[in-house]
Design a protein that fits this description.
heterodimer; A: alpha+beta; 37 helices; B: alpha+beta; globular; Longin-like_dom_sf (chain B)
Chain lengths: ~900, ~180
């Protein structure tokens, strides 16, 4: 490792302590700034004072408003001096002080004079300062000079004007856009940096005009762009154009690809790399297109410059995620990077290798990594652990060496995040690779023997309780678990008790011994531990409690199918408003809420004919349920099954805003129209919605709840109820017309006229679809839930979904068609994948649990095929789900 | 300080730092709003310094990532130079800026690149920062041009380079630079 070259002798130390700014103080320097006011200016001294002021600002010191103003005015005096160096410091100082608008006026004339000076340096700097501190009004005055400056023959002046233009475009785009002709001319400049700045500005002026950008790219890619920086810009713009145009469908060629490829042979490394990166980031890039880019990146891997190696390995790492085969050629170079001095490079190299490695190289790789792990920081280790996890899932046969590796690093020192990453990985491997189960569980058991993190211990104990009893020899885990009861803190002890109980429930041969252990826990000094032990002893003891064996298992292993947030709100409501009745967990809604309350409640509710308006609701469906049950006409409809999200029936910003919420009951549907009157001069009365259900044959209207009055900006509801066949997901289309009588309102007094005029207002149509009959209810472990369902209820079929834009689009379409809850993040489709499996769960009307497994595949011509497997508590429901898909 | 503008496609520099061997500021310039307060800036400088402290960045510029930023850096004597960009930035562009800054400082300090010399010529260092990047946009990357722009302004007698004429100063400096490069 390198030794710092700083000499450590005393002599040097003394010197290092010395600083020209030692003991500097703001007050004193501000005093010193008075020299700026001297009639005979000492330029050198003034420069020094400014440097001190800048030093203070640079160290993070701040000036009060008064101090800043004072300094600013003093500094403006220095424009009298003809000393160039001092002038430069004045410019810097003005920029740092960022004066207010009324102060800017003071220096404007001086700066404008400098802008027209014969000294190039003055011109360039004055432009930058003025543009930095100016506002729009002043800009029109100096616009003429700026346009001239853009085409100035001095490159520094031109660059200063162009860069200022880039900044000003954000604040006053209309002015800067008038400069395009001059900017265009500057793009042709012979000076490298001017070309770069001009290109950046020109692109930003035109960025919203696709055609113009495309033209710009077309003309420049043919010509010669000299500056490497400008070339990099052009590459970025080119990729943007490629993204927007897509592949030529006839020839399969990508426009401008040749240009990118030619940039790989540019003499500047910066440009080569930019082009290589651009190629790897093309959407749906082919192997043929990738190859030349990979080749240059491979060369960079053996560069002597760390920056180059880093850039190359980072890009290859990204490529390896989508095209691992394309990167395998670089594996040898990559392996030598494992010992790179720069640990970022080494980590990137390792994780790339883990992605591209084949089955035979795994063992060798693991050996190299073991040495490597000891000398990198936790943050890098986590990256490596995650890479190893995915490698193991890719090559399940290699689980032995990978699992060993994970257990070894689990034993070493490390922080919580790192350990958690390892434990999570082992858990995932156990779940997905059956063979790895026994050894993995033992590794975890050993880990909790000496684990300082309560969270991890409890997680592992919980997992052990679910998986341990199903192994060939469950008894060997008991020792580890009972040790926790003896040695650990209360939280861990409590979860150890639960784990013991799970073993007792599933393994009959262990039951008597578990009982002995649990009885000992009755003397624990913690309430929770004792309570749990008592509870479990009673549950498991066959004779004493009437519960059946199945109930016990359900109680111990069943997952809570109610979202925790819902139960939390319900409990809070219950606690706020306690009643005699005990809290009933079945009253908690099971629907996952994706958005908070959408329905707007009017402040200061007017009498709306609803009897008692409900109190402010805490969750939308709670509110709906109370609202509906308070209406006598709907009270006998039974329990509300589902309420949809509001569907807008009017365009935004129309006279009346109306949306509808569909409430589904077993034998009825109720449409709740939320209406808002947005015209202050009107009062609407007797508002109803006339629903035409001619395209919804199974529905028949049974009741209407009109809205007596709808004043300005006070949302209120009117309802229409329909009857439908029981338990059937009847679908149909409904056309709506808002009917009301309108009264003019005098806005000054707020009084309405006496006579109303009947009027109608056409609303948009909406549909009741199958998804309205399925509740989004997630499950925590899909696999367990799936396996616990009767396989006889499974219905499988395949469907062709026709050509689709992408797999993502197809997956989303089916999810929204079914209206079910995606599980385990399977709704996210990795880009470029050709197939995808999506897991959904929900509750069908009639409280029937439904699980769906969707497998998608897409072929070259974008034809999507789908295999749909459904399991549910009721075979008819499985078939109904198929019907939904077949008819959708 | 000017507000930082996000230029989607234009290479952007978030900050340039020059710290001493204990991680204290010599001169810093932030072009981005990612670190709105002085405390945030100091915290960033501290973590950058600690993260890079033990690496060898004396012969070649080194590189690392921190908080979704790419940082290229180079050390000489008791001075640590850093240039920060977003994690999508072309690493080589950042390295070019760092090299430009480094070369310019070497020229301006006449090859005596250490903390003391830098503080004594802080005006030159600040002007140098001003000439490299403007509001995040790269102005110039060639060290000798940057130094040239800064040095023209030091004609004032008594200023640190006063004993020599500008052309002399630059010539010696260039010579030093070539020598150090050939080493």
């Amino acid at each position: 490792m390198a030794q710092p070259l700083v000499k450590k002798d005393d002599d040097r130390d003394e010197e290092a302590d010395y600083s020209p700014f030692l003991g500097i103080e703001k007050g004193a320097v501000l005093q010193e700034a008075r020299v700026f006011n001297d009639p005979q200016l000492d330029a050198r001294r003034c420069s020094q004072v400014i440097t001190k002021l800048l030093y203070l600002l640079n160290q993070g010191e701040t000036f009060t408003k008064v101090e800043a103003t004072e300094v600013f005015f003093a500094v403006t005096k220095l424009f009298q001096s003809r000393d160039i160096g001092l002038r430069r410091m004045v410019y810097l100082m003005i920029k740092e002080l960022s004066p207010s608008a009324d102060e800017v006026i003071i220096v404007t004339s001086s700066l404008m004079k400098d802008m027209n000076s014969r000294t190039d340096m003055y011109r360039a700097n004055a432009i930058r300062v003025l543009c930095r501190i100016t506002d729009g009004t002043l800009l029109t005055q100096i616009e003429r000079y700026l346009k001239q400056a853009i085409v100035d023959k001095n490159p520094v002046v031109a660059s200063a004007a162009l860069v200022s233009g880039i900044h000003l475009l954000q604040t006053t785009p209309e002015i800067v856009k008038r400069w395009s002709n001059e900017v265009q001319e500057a793009v042709q400049s012979r000076a490298a940096l001017v070309q770069f700045h001009a290109l950046a500005l020109l692109h930003q002026i035109r960025q919203n005009d696709r055609l113009a950008v495309s033209k710009l790219v077309t003309s420049l890619t043919k010509g010669t762009v000299r500056s490497p920086l400008a070339q990099c810009l052009l590459i970025r713009y080119t990729s943007q154009v490629i993204r927007e145009t897509g592949v030529n469908s006839q020839t399969g060629d990508r426009p401008f690809y040749d240009y990118l490829e030619s940039c790989l042979r540019h003499k500047a490394e910066m440009v080569i790399f930019e082009a290589a990166k651009a190629i790897t980031e093309l959407s749906n890039v082919t192997t043929r297109e990738l190859t030349p880019a990979i080749t240059v990146l491979q060369l960079f891997l053996s560069s002597s410059k760390p920056v180059l190696r880093f850039a190359a390995v980072r890009t290859l790492n990204k490529v390896a995620m989508t095209h691992p085969m394309a990167v395998t050629n670089c594996n040898i170079d990559m392996e030598s990077l494992i010992s790179d001095q720069n640990r970022s490079i080494a980590t990137l190299a390792i994780t790339t290798l883990l992605k591209t490695g084949n089955e035979s190289s795994v063992d060798r790789l693991m050996k190299q990594i073991t040495n490597f792990m000891s000398d990198i920081a936790d943050e890098f280790k986590i990256v490596v652990v995650e890479a190893i996890r995915s490698l193991c899932l890719k090559f399940p046969l290699k689980y032995r060496s990978l699992m060993n590796f994970l257990s070894n690093i689990l034993r070493e020192e490390g922080g919580f995040e790192y350990k958690k990453a390892i434990v999570d990985s082992i858990v995932i491997l156990i779940r997905d690779i059956p063979d790895a189960k026994e050894s993995g569980l033992l590794h975890l058991c050993e880990f909790i023997e000496d684990c300082e993190f309560t969270y991890l211990s409890t997680q592992i104990l919980h997992f052990l309780g679910n998986e341990g009893p199903k192994t060939s020899d469950p008894s060997k885990y008991i020792r580890y678990i009972y040790n926790r009861v003896i040695l650990e803190n209360a939280t861990v002890r409590a979860s150890a008790v639960s784990t013991l109980a799970k073993f007792g429930a599933l393994v009959d041969s262990l039951k008597p011994r578990i009982f002995i252990l649990l009885r000992r826990c009755l003397f624990d000094n913690d309430d929770e531990v004792r309570d749990r032990a008592t509870l479990y002893l009673n549950c498991l003891d066959d004779g004493s409690v009437t519960e059946t064996d199945k109930d016990v298992k359900e109680f111990l292993f069943g997952s809570l199918d109610i979202p925790l947030t819902n139960i939390e709100t319900s409990l809070k409501n219950y606690a706020q408003d306690p009643t005699e009745e005990p809290f009933d967990i079945n009253s908690v809604t099971k629907e996952v809420k994706s958005q908070p309350l959408v329905e707007k409640k009017a402040p200061g509710k007017k009498p709306t004919g609803l009897g008692a308006p409900p109190p402010a609701p805490t969750s939308a469906s709670d509110a709906y349920e109370r609202l509906l049950s308070s209406i006598p006409e709907f009270a006998n409809f039974g329990k509300l099954f589902k309420s949809s999200a509001p569907v807008e029936l009017t365009e935004a910003e129309t006279e009346y805003a109306v949306n509808v919420v569909k409430h589904i009951f077993d034998r009825h549907v109720v449409f709740q129209y939320n209406c808002t009157n947005t015209i202050p001069e009107q009062l609407l009365e007797n508002v109803t919605v006339i629903v035409d259900a001619s395209e919804a044959e199974e529905f028949s209207e049974v009741g209407v709840k009109p809205l007596k009055s709808l004043p300005y900006d006070t949302p209120a509801q009117t309802f229409v109820a329909f009857e439908k066949p029981e338990g059937v997901p009847a679908a149909g289309k409904f056309s709506n017309t808002l009917r009301f009588s309108v009264k003019e309102v005098d806005t000054s007094t707020g009084e309405a006229e006496d006579d109303g005029v009947e009027d109608e207002y056409q609303l948009e149509d909406f549909e009741v679809v199958a998804a309205d009959y399925i509740l989004k209810v997630g499950v925590s472990n899909f696999r367990n839930a799936w396996e616990s369902m009767d396989p006889d209820t499974e219905r499988i079929d395949e469907y062709g979904l026709g050509p689709r834009e992408s797999l993502v689009e197809a997956v989303n379409a089916v999810i929204s068609l079914l209206g079910m809850q995606p599980c385990e993040g399977t709704e996210a489709v990795p880009t470029n994948s050709r197939s995808h499996t999506c897991l959904l769960s929900g509750v069908y009307i009639g409280n029937v649990k439904v699980l769906v497994r969707l497998s998608f595949g897409i072929d070259g011509s974008k034809e999507v095929a789908m295999k749909l497997a459904v399991r549910s508590d009721d075979v008819n429901v499985s078939e109904a789900v198929h019907e939904i898909v077949a008819s959708g | 300080m000017a507000t930082f503008l996000s230029h989607e496609t234009c290479p952007t520099i978030k900050n340039i730092l020059m710290l001493d061997s204990e991680g204290k500021r010599v001169a810093v310039k932030y072009y981005s709003d990612d670190w709105p307060t002085n405390t945030a800036k100091l915290a960033f400088e501290k973590s950058v310094f600690t993260k890079t402290q033990k690496t060898n960045a004396r012969t070649e510029a080194e590189i690392t990532m921190l908080e979704s930023n790419i940082i290229v850096y180079k050390f000489v004597q008791d001075l640590h130079f850093f240039v920060t960009g977003g994690d999508d930035e072309n690493e080589l562009i950042l390295a070019t800026v760092l090299q430009g800054f480094f070369d310019a400082v070497t020229l301006l300090l006449r090859n005596n690149v250490d903390q003391r010399e830098a503080l004594e010529n802080l005006d030159l260092i600040l002007l140098c920062l001003d000439e490299i990047v403007d509001g995040g946009i790269i102005l110039e990357t060639d060290g000798s041009i940057i130094a040239g722009k800064v040095a023209t302004h030091s004609m004032d007698d008594g200023a640190p380079l006063s004993e020599q004429t500008i052309s002399q100063a630059l010539a010696t400096a260039r010579e030093h630079l070539t020598r150090s490069l050939l080493k």
